[in-house]
Amino acid sequence: MTPNIPIDRLGVCSWSLQPSSAEDLVRKVQEVGLERVQLALCPMLDDPEGFADVGARLKDAGVTILSGMFASLGENYSTLESIRETGGVRPDATWKANLERAIAAAPLAASMGIDLVTMHAGFIPHRIEDCGYAILLERIRTIADTFGEHGIRLGLETGQETAATLIDTIRVLDHEGVGVNFDPANMLLYGMGDPITAIDRLAPWVVQIHAKDARSCEVPGVWGQEMRLGEGEVDWSLFLERVLAIEPEVNVLIECEEGDERIEDVRHARRLLIGN
After folding, report:
1. Secondary structure of 81-140 in the HEC alphabet?
2. Is 1 inside any structural domain?
């Protein structure tokens, strides 16, 4: 798998390691042989006893926080239909609580020097005139402004819509603080197109990469399957060429969301991505 990602641009998503506390997260990041992390912000809100000092603990251990991740309340990933109904900031039932959550998370992120936070916005309708499009865009704008007040950009994660829909959305938003967190596996898992074609189109807006692999499902409306890096359908040689060509340079965060061997899966991904 070539070309290789420079080690100083490679990290791991904290939630992939399923940490039980800040101390446990530090230990696991060190165990996988990395010194950089994308930090899930919401555990600091939901479990302050376990994660309130996570920023300080990571810093003391020499671990750099490359970005943050904001997760919306009420998301149900059981099926594609359930996440379509509950994902991101689209549902009316959870919008107020999610805005309050973002308002609380933004200063926490800023206090740790984080300048990029990523999230799933929710399934964006494919046409501007579709029901709910205007409301969802206004909510994305509000979240972007909330983080932007603290000097933080917002990265919309790929997968729940096609590259074309996401491009149209970013252009309509016309918000300097909004970019794209590109996840090639999500394009396959959600059945939203070829990852290489998608990153070619989205490259001007990409602010971060998630390194994850998957196989698509031939049955419409059914989840694809996440795989160990290099064992799915992503053409990593071509994909990494695209990643290394993006300007300005972007960081790559290993993400694993399936399986019981997360430490070894992250180590495996690390070896493939840096070439040893």
Report:
1. HHHHHHCCCCCHHHHHHHHHHHHHHHHHHHHCCCCEEEECCCCCCCCCCCCCHHHHHHHH
2. no
